[in-house]
Specification:
Chain lengths: 340, 635
């Protein structure tokens, strides 16, 4: 009698679990972040759909977009923004050019380099005004200064994000054994490499969260060097921009509004980011996302009252860095690249 | 009020004393118990937890070492058969199928080495062998490949989800494959993480104890709170709660340390104890958390029981003492009443018949004895008082008789016109030992004497009476002062004890020519004061005091008085008068008094001297009889 009751209970629980997981899947497929306010159904039908693809998997790096979505800033502008899946398998530039996405997020250097191909990239908003890129080395591996890099193993991302690091090595005439990296920091933690490129807002803090203290690390923050340039921006193609200039500008304005909201409401924003990450079954912890958001807030607000503006000096500096290295670079002018 | 005094009495004091004693004893007892037992309980808890941890670690290690063991077999198979791929794959599948601990086997080559690199994963699913191939781009940057490949050493991965093949969360044991001394690829053996989680998760200790696993970089692998698993690391928890101690513990855990630490009011673990020990095979760490309350709960219960027990003991003892002291104090109260009655003179007041204890019985007995003794004493006292009163009456009569022996002061004694006399005798007690007397021996001779019997009281008084009577008798037959004194001395030597000797100054004045013959037997000097208020001290003595040595020859001296000369006689009661500073008046003091006299007759002289002596004494009690005799000649 007793065991039968338990079996019934288990069956009931299983049904409940299936029911809820089923609901959740359906929800995931359609809408990741539910706006808090929705107006009349008529307005909803007239919404303009924009497919936005972040440069990386869900995290606080895109908090402004999540908050714009959640707080209805896109909706208010008559936009229906679809935040597309992202990650290593979804390169933004290719997705944009192939028409899988309408607006993507990329770093300035990547954008300027890749634009050498078609010359049709438009910067809708410059989100972060300085680079968060760093090189870190373990002092326990004998890395105590830049000259110590010589002959050691350095882990660099296999994407265009390695560009600045490579330029740095070249400028410092450092001959290092480069190991291509994908996403994890474990090779560095396990001493498979001596130096690694990291983002201050992300991998650097992951290293700290793996039990290594800042004092145990030798670090070079590119933001403190002459290689400091603006980083993340929102990009679309000239074709899309010419067709839907208002919607593009509205998207950029709403996203920046989302960022302003995130900067002013960091605890709430972190909670939202964690929700999104959990929806995507990504490992997440609050201190890390809090750290990331805090770092991004600083990177965004470098210039007073200039949030979202791509500085012409940054444009020129990034372009010069590329041409100095004989790398391909956009032929567009500042005004053509950043029409606002 | 009376009731309250009784309570504050014996019962109150004893109960307070017991209360303080019990508090001290039990506080010490409870304190010592707590210190001793908390150590024992900590040791026991540590031992229990470490046993549990070792047992769990043993189970996990058992699974992991099985993987290691299989890896050796597979490596041999690989090296023997890697040219015959189909045969090797079949063998590997059989192994995967055979060993429950083995989820999948993967052989992956680096792009630079073998056929531009590829990997194949062999596993068993839905009753069939599955071989899944991947291109280098799909795996060459994944930890399981890249880390052992770069390190060229064996490597246990962090838990990861194999989305390409088994679709399971696994941990993998990765072995570099070498060809001609060069690392060409990795062999990977997967084992299910859930199997390890199943070993750790069900662990329960007491009410709230649990176990958790931490990976080699601090990631939480299993924890009762699912939300922590894979999301948090021990360091992120430390950061979230700003807990530096926890971060240090995390560092020790991933460093392979063993410890049992107290986490006081920790935001993550609460007030608890954490035991951690490493998994040697893959450098993970197992933590076991047990609430402090669980460890000391039994001890606290014991201490509460002890405290309650102490209170019950105290109350019981207090009640017993209260009622016992009440029963003891009842006869004591009766005693009080009896004592009051006895105090008021009722010596027949009835005592309680028996007490409640040996001591009280003894007290009753002692009280009875005391009552009897008091009764007897009072009776004796009454007799003594009666006797005393009688003696006092008799002494009074003796005193009166003695006073009558002293001649009365008249202006011209016995009608003798040639002289005037005045004497004062102030005895120190009711009856005195001083004497003065004067009387005519014949028509032309006048005898006077002043004497001092040593000692006071009855004996001195009797001696003085004898001297007075004997003098009157003997002076009838003898005319010289020396003879009279010798007779008196012999008489006294016969009649009195040696301790009663007498100093005396005896003189016979020839009324016609003023010739004065006198004998001084150890008495104070004779003073002659003339009309001009000059004075002369005649200290000459003619023998030692009377009544000591029989048959003494006593001489005499003679002087002739002028008209108006005053003979001043006194006893040592004058010169030995003391003032409050205990200074004697002495002869010098008396001389000063005499110098200041302004008297014109013996009475004034005697009275003035006495007044001055009294003013010198300033109410200091008189120790000796004071006697002054003043005689003036033909004034």
């Amino acid at each position: 009698m007793h065991s039968r009751q338990i079996i019934y209970l288990i069956i009931a629980l299983m049904i409940a679990v299936f029911f809820f997981t089923g609901c959740r899947k359906e929800k995931n497929g359609q809408l990741e972040i539910t706006p808090e306010k929705t107006d009349s159904p008529e307005k909803k039908t007239s919404l303009f759909t924009i497919r936005y693809r972040p440069v990386w998997t869900a995290q606080a790096e895109f908090a402004g977009v999540y908050m714009a979505q959640k707080k209805g800033f896109y909706y208010d502008k008559g936009l229906n923004v679809i935040i597309q899946p992202s990650g290593i398998n979804y390169p933004p530039y290719e997705n944009l050019q192939q028409g899988y996405s309408d607006i993507v997020q990329m770093s300035l250097l990547t954008a300027l380099k890749r634009d050498a191909e078609k010359g049709n990239l438009i910067n809708l908003a410059q989100i972060t005004q300085r680079t968060s890129l760093m090189l870190v080395g373990k002092k326990s591996r004998g890395i105590n200064s830049i000259p110590d890099f010589e002959g050691k193993k350095i882990g660099l991302w296999k994407t265009d994000d390695r560009l600045l690091s490579l330029i740095f090595l070249q400028q410092n005439k450092l001959n290092m054994n480069i190991v291509d990296l994908d996403i994890t920091i474990n090779l560095f933690l396990k001493d498979g490499i001596d130096v690694m490129n990291v983002m201050r807002y992300n991998e650097y803090h992951q290293i700290l969260q793996a039990g290594i203290d800042p004092e145990e690390l030798f670090t070079i923050s590119f933001a403190d060097t002459e290689l400091n340039i603006a980083d993340n921006g929102l990009y679309t193609t000239r074709e899309f921009y010419s067709k839907y200039p208002k919607q593009c500008r509205d998207f950029a304005a709403a996203t920046l509004q989302g960022w302003i909201y995130a900067i002013n409401n960091q605890e709430e924003t972190v909670s939202t980011v964690l929700e999104v990450m959990h929806q995507h079954h990504l490992p997440a912890n609050r201190p890390h996302q809090k750290w990331m958001l805090n770092e991004l807030c600083r990177d965004i607000t470098i210039y007073k009252n200039q949030v979202g503006i791509l500085q012409e000096s940054d444009f020129n500096k990034a372009k010069k860095i590329l041409t100095d290295q004989n790398l391909p670079a956009t032929r567009q002018t500042y005004k053509g690249f950043f029409p606002q | 009020m009376k009731q309250r005094q009784e309570k504050r009495g014996m019962a109150y004091q004893i109960i307070v004393f017991i209360f303080i004693s019990l508090i001290l004893v039990f506080a010490a007892f409870i304190g010592i118990t707590r210190i001793l037992f908390s150590h024992i309980m900590m040791d026991n808890a540590k031992e229990t937890v470490s046993h549990l941890a070792n047992e769990t670690i043993y189970q996990i290690e058992n699974r992991l070492t099985k993987v290691l063991d299989i890896s050796r077999t597979i490596l041999i198979l690989y090296h023997n058969n890697h040219f015959e791929r189909k045969k090797l794959d079949a063998l590997l599948h059989d192994l995967v199928y055979e060993f429950e601990t083995l989820e999948a086997v993967t052989i992956a080559y680096a792009p630079s080495s073998y056929q531009k690199g590829y990997s194949r994963t062999i596993f068993h699913s839905q009753n069939k062998a599955i071989y899944r191939e991947l291109q280098p781009a799909d795996y060459q940057y994944l930890d399981w490949f890249q880390i052992p490949f770069e390190l060229e050493s064996k490597y246990w991965t962090e838990p990861w989800y194999d989305a390409n093949a088994t679709k399971e969360t696994v941990i993998s044991y990765c072995i570099p494959l070498f060809a001609e001394g060069k690392c060409i690829g990795i062999m990977r053996l997967d084992t299910e993480l859930s199997a390890l989680q199943k070993i750790v998760s069900p662990l329960k200790l007491k009410h709230s104890g649990y176990a958790f696993l931490v990976s080699s970089i601090g990631t939480i692998i299993t924890h009762p709170a699912d939300s922590l698993t894979f999301n948090e690391s021990i360091f992120s928890l430390a950061e979230a709660t700003n807990d530096k101690q926890l971060r240090q513990i995390g560092k020790k855990m991933i460093n392979g340390d063993i410890d049992f630490v107290h986490l006081q009011n920790n935001a993550v673990f609460g007030d608890s104890w954490l035991y951690y020990a490493p998994l040697i095979t893959n450098n993970w760490s197992l933590g076991i958390v047990i609430a402090h309350e669980d460890i000391v709960g039994d001890l606290n219960l014991l201490l509460i029981i002890q405290t309650l027990f102490s209170v019950i003991i105290f109350l019981t003892i207090s009640l017993i003492v209260y009622y016992r002291t009440l029963s003891i104090s009842r006869p004591i109260r009766l005693f009080m009443e009896v004592a009051n009655k006895i105090g008021q003179g009722d010596f027949d007041a009835k005592l309680p018949s028996t007490g409640n204890s040996y001591e009280i019985d003894r007290l009753i007995l002692a009280f009875e004895t005391m009552q009897e003794s008091l009764k007897e004493y009072i009776q004796n006292l009454e007799i003594t008082i009666e006797e005393k009163n009688r003696i006092e009456a008799e002494v009074k009569i003796a005193s009166e008789i003695q006073r009558k022996l002293i001649p009365e002061n008249t202006l011209h004694p016995y009608g003798i016109q040639e002289l005037r006399c005045y004497g004062i005798l102030e005895p120190a007690g009711d009856i005195g030992g001083d004497l003065y007397d004067f009387f005519p021996v014949d028509k032309s001779h006048f005898l006077f004497v002043i004497a001092d019997v040593t000692g006071k009281g009855i004996v001195a008084s009797m001696t003085m009476t004898m001297v007075s009577t004997y003098l009157r008798t003997v002076s009838t037959y003898h005319y010289t002062t020396g003879e009279i004194m010798q007779n008196l001395n012999n008489f006294l030597c016969k009649q009195t004890s040696a301790s009663n000797f007498v100093t005396a100054l005896l003189g016979i004045l020839n009324l016609k020519n003023g010739k004065l013959e006198f004998s001084n037997a150890g008495h104070t000097p004779l003073i002659i004061r003339n009309i001009d208020n000059d004075y002369k001290i005649i200290s000459e003595t003619h023998s030692s005091p009377l009544g000591v040595f029989a048959n003494m020859v006593i001489g005499s001296a003679a002087i002739t008085l002028e008209k108006g000369d005053e003979i001043i006689l006194f006893t040592d009661g004058i010169t030995e008068t003391m003032n409050p500073a205990e200074d004697f008046l002495e002869l010098k003091g008396l001389e000063n008094i005499i110098t200041e006299l302004n008297s014109t007759n013996p009475e004034q002289t005697a009275v003035q001297i006495l007044q001055k002596v009294h003013s010198f004494a300033q109410n200091t009690p008189q120790k000796d009889d004071i006697t002054i005799l003043v005689i003036d000649y033909k004034k």
